[in-house]
Automatic annotation (TrEMBL):
Its main location: membrane. It comes from Paractinoplanes tereljensis. Residues 20-251 form the ABC transmembrane type-2 domain. The chain crosses the membrane at residues 21-40, 60-81, 102-128, 140-165, 172-189, 226-244. GO terms for cellular component: ATP-binding cassette (ABC) transporter complex. Belongs to the ABC-2 integral membrane protein family. PROSITE patterns: ABC_TM2. This is Transport permease protein.
């Protein structure tokens, strides 16, 4: 734990010296929020209301934007880990008298903290734009827990991708997938409005139950896919952790 905290402090110092990482993690989701609310919101508003006089489009949209915030945070983690592994920093850590697990754990803790802070700021901007959640304290806590679990899952996958890639450009497929999948989910429009093949994919891909559960928790509607969402997050987190650990132990550099 002491070694992990040392690595966490290193991660925090890097963030303070390069604040653009946090700025971009916040700016891109906020930009999408502004675009979809300001440009498409009027046209889509009626189509996403569950009942007459129900929620506005921004209320439907925010959970998907939060997921994209987590995705952007994971891609920056992949790049940071790749920079460390290709520059030889991790090779130096491997020969030091420190816990090997702390090298990755510190990176994950720091990235998770940055992403959660970014998500809180995105929610603040959404509230300023008209987002009106109906969640009580218990539902807010459950939503925060699910978002944290998702952050851990995608962050561990980002760490593994950063270790596996030979160059920074090698992390691009992960970035592409993380940024594309939300558009093929229930993040922006209900899957029922999509064509049959896309609707099937959107219904069964991992992000849709997570977004739907966040939406149900924040808007006070019945939660239908909570167990599926938690299961997907747990599977992705375990897969990313095992993959990252295997790569870190095997890599001789």
């Amino acid at each position: 734990m002491s070694d992990a905290l040392t690595m966490l402090r290193r991660n925090v110092r890097h963030t303070r010296r390069n604040p653009s990482t946090v700025v971009m993690t916040i700016a891109l989701p906020v930009f999408l929020l502004l675009i979809f609310v300001g440009v498409f919101g009027g046209a889509l508003n009626e189509g996403v209301r569950p009942t007459p006089g129900g929620f506005e489009y921004i209320d439907y949209l925010v959970p998907g934007i939060l997921l994209m915030t987590v995705g952007y945070g994971a891609t920056t983690t992949a790049l940071a880990v790749n920079r460390d592994i290709t520059s030889g920093i991790i090779a130096r850590f491997r020969v030091m008298a420190i816990s090997r697990a702390s090298v990755l754990t510190g990176q994950v803790i720091g990235s998770t903290a940055r992403t959660i802070i970014s998500a809180i700021l995105v929610v603040g901007v959404a509230v300023a734009l008209g987002f009106r959640p109906a969640a009580g304290p218990g539902r807010w806590l459950a939503a925060a827990g699910l978002l944290t679990l998702l952050t851990l899952a995608l962050t561990w996958l980002g760490v593994a991708v950063g270790l596996a890639a030979k160059t920074a450009e090698g992390t691009a497929p992960f970035t592409f997938v993380v940024q594309l999948l939300p558009f093929l989910s229930s993040a922006f429009v209900p899957p029922e409005s999509m064509s049959a093949p896309v609707r099937w994919f959107a219904t069964h891909e991992p992000f849709t139950p997570v977004i739907d559960t966040l939406r149900d928790l924040l808007l006070g509607t019945p939660v239908e896919h909570g167990l599926v969402a938690v299961a997907w997050c747990a599977v992705l987190a375990l897969a990313g952790y095992l993959w990252a650990r295997a790569l870190f132990r095997r890599d001789p550099s």
